[in-house]
Amino acid sequence: MNIFRKISSSIHRKLRPVESHAIWQQLNLAQKFAVRSLAECDYELCFIRTIAGNRLVVMICGENFATIDSEGEIDMHPDIKLRYSL
Length: 86
Fold this sequence. Notes:
The chain is globular, with a radius of gyration of 13 Å. The protein has one domain. The two termini are 21 Å apart. The chain has 86 residues and is an alpha+beta fold. It contains two helices and four strands; from the N terminus they run ααββββ. Strand 2 and strand 3 (64-68) form a beta hairpin.
């Protein structure tokens, strides 16, 4: 039953447009374009981390992370430390 929930949750996330995510409204235009690009590659919007006044968007796909800076630049191999496991 746990596997069914995991698959169902994954399907639901793919059907839910990234624009409906609560974080979406906090992104600037450049970040929104970059988030859409990564979402097409199955990355999920996770959270925003503010570092020195700059918002860094964190996305995940499996065990891979990507970040998007305030200019919309995507880093597919960020040096980021998480406080918890997603």
